[in-house]
Design a protein that fits this description.
It is built from 12 helices and 8 strands. It has 254 residues and is an alpha/beta fold. It has one domain: Aldolase class I (TIM Barrel, Alpha-Beta Barrel). The protein has an 8-stranded parallel β-sheet. Helix 7 packs across helix 9 and helix 11 packs parallel to helix 12. Bound molecules: 2-phosphoglycolic acid.
Length: 254
Amino acid sequence: MRKQIAAANWKMNLSIQQAEDLMDEILKMEYGLSDNQEVLIAVPFPYLMRIKEKLSTQKQFNICAQNSAATKNGAYTGETSAEILKSIDVFYAIIGHSERREYFHENNQLLAQKIDLALASGIKPVFCCGEPLSIREANNQNDYVETQLKESLFHLNATQMKNFIIAYEPIWAIGTGKTASSHQAQEMHLHIRTVLCTQYGHEIANSISILYGGSVKASNAAEIFEKPDVDGGLVGGASLVAAEFSTIIKSLKK
Ligand code: PGA
């Protein structure tokens, strides 16, 4: 069975004190997670080491960066490379979040470079894809997402694809309170898996966890996660509330 993953994306929120308190609150609850379930916590860069320390005794919890650079090292003020992340034992990074695409002009080609560098440093990318509202309204979402996958991922070989997590996040559902229906999520996840299958074959396509993101909350997580091709969620707003996120973790398929 594929890994079922609840990933928190704290984005640019919380002071260090608030971040530590939130992490403590989340860890206070009992989850009884199986080996097949995993929780990722994507925090602002300055908090990576502190929150990682808190997770050190939690087998199923892992720290995650929210981004990593498209260049290896050097004079790139303000950037954090995959090598730097590796040097502090951070082995997951969100790559290609729609906010990075929109506000920082990251395109599919640049994301391909980020992915190559992340994989070269042993970092597992949580690669985000998803269409804006205009594309959904024109019913072109399948082609749009397929192009994102092709242009950023399809230069990779099958072994590299084994170290991958994909998050489908329709932009119109991020932070808007508007969630894709579980049916829409399943439909796109199946499409993504089919595209992966054509390129990499069944075994690889079936081994990659595909998370849904976009206004996942305690009240809708179970219904979305229960779909056969949905392997958990990437959660923004609701991951900032311990009670919400813990219910989301508990909603993962066993
Ligand atoms: P949201 O964000 O849960 O607040 O919609 C999801 C994301 O951007 O990863």
